[in-house]
User: Fold this.
Amino acid sequence: MFALQVESEVAGLSECFAQGDVQRLRRLAHSLKGCCANMGVQELSRQASIIEKAAMVNDTATIQTLLPALAPLATQSLNAMREAGYLASAN
Assistant:
């Protein structure tokens, strides 16, 4: 469930940005930040926090800079959790 939430929220962030929906993007970033922090995925949580703060002040340049790296970071984090046995394998 955690992996699906992360993947969905990361994809949602990109969709929101493409649609210009910065407020929904902020809410998704907040949710991603929290769920990742709860699971100990600190770097992904930190990046989501930066995106959330940028959305609060409508700093689309920062959001645009950070979003492309978010999906690869999420994939890397989820794979590391799977390898460590914290998540079921993604089949």
